[in-house]
Amino acid sequence: MRLTSYEKSAQREVDAWLRGDGSLVARAMDWVMRPVDWAVEQGVPDSVVDQMSDAIGGFLSKLNDATKWAVDLSSIQSEARKHGLDIDDLEDLRTASLETLDSIARGLFTQNTVMAALSGGGTGLGGAMLIAADIPLLFAINLHLIQRIGAAYGFPMTGPEHGPIVLSIYNAAAANSREARSGALHEVGIAAAAYAGGGIYQGRVRGVFSDQSRHVPRELAKNLVGRKLLQTIPLAGAAVGAGVNYWFTRETAQTSYMLFRALYIEHKDRLQ
């Protein structure tokens, strides 16, 4: 199918995001955290990074315990109908106007970022004791955000088979690097080919999600560990926790937004 002028513009935005240096929020966070990241590299033992990685991987592994990741996506259907889209199921959104879908997706940003910030602020009050509890909660909030944004484009990520896409989004959001964004976009291309051909999506990483999560890039843990450790600072912990969670969730939202737009466009292009 021929791309509309709006879709071509969106494609250029995705390309610019892929080649760019990250969002303003990400660049600001990187600048503020540069001394901390250096200190982590120099002074934080590998065992601490390993513990953080294990906490992330452990949560992700547990997602495989259910046949589907529990999330209510009925609100996406309701929102689509408010925008004048007559759909029977979420997959029908794959043929809807991208401009309308973008509007629905952007409307999901604020609620989840505020929720994550409140979570980080609350657990930050408990210092080191509550950091371990904050990590699974942060990733759970972001998983639901990824699922909702994907559903807004007709691609609900509601099962462990979508693990590779979810992992690539987490990594791209935390790493804020062109390499991580490129890897995530490649995963989206695999999904687009599978969906357009009527097949079943299988990511680059084989095996069940619990196996895939063991291969979560260590960079993901390294990009969070220093920032999470700042939550142990007396009095400042709540503000730091809220800020770090806001940053990560905002980046997850922006990464998901760009990647699912790319999935929508490539899926449409492959249907020609």
Task: Write out key terms for the chains shown.
single chain; 272 residues; 12 helices; 0% strand; mainly alpha; globular
Topology diagram in text:
Elements: H1 5-19, H2 24-43, H3 46-62, H4 74-82, H5 98-106, H6 109-124, H7 128-152, H8 163-175, H9 178-196, H10 209-212, H11 218-229, H12 237-270
Question: What does the model show?
Answer:
With 272 residues, this protein is mainly α. The protein has one domain (5-270). It is built from twelve helices and no strands. Helix 3 crosses helix 7. The protein is globular, with a radius of gyration of 18 Å. Residues 120-129 and 206-217 have low confidence and may be disordered.
Helix/strand structural class:
mainly alpha
- Counted beta strands: 0
Give the overall silhouette: globular
Percent in helix: over 70%
Q: Name the helix and strand elements from N-terminus to C-terminus, one letter apiece.
A: HHHHHHHHHHHH
Quote the average pLDDT.
75
Tell me the β content.
Answer: under 5%
Radius of gyration from CA coordinates: 18 Å
User: Low-confidence parts, pLDDT < 50 over ≥5 residues?
Assistant: 120-129, 206-217
Please report the number of helical segments: 12
Distance between the termini: 5 Å
Work out the count of structural domains.
Answer: 1
Give a quick account of the main beta sheet: strands, pairing sense, barrel closure: none
Gist?
The protein is an all-alpha fold. Helices cover 71% and strands 0% of the residues.
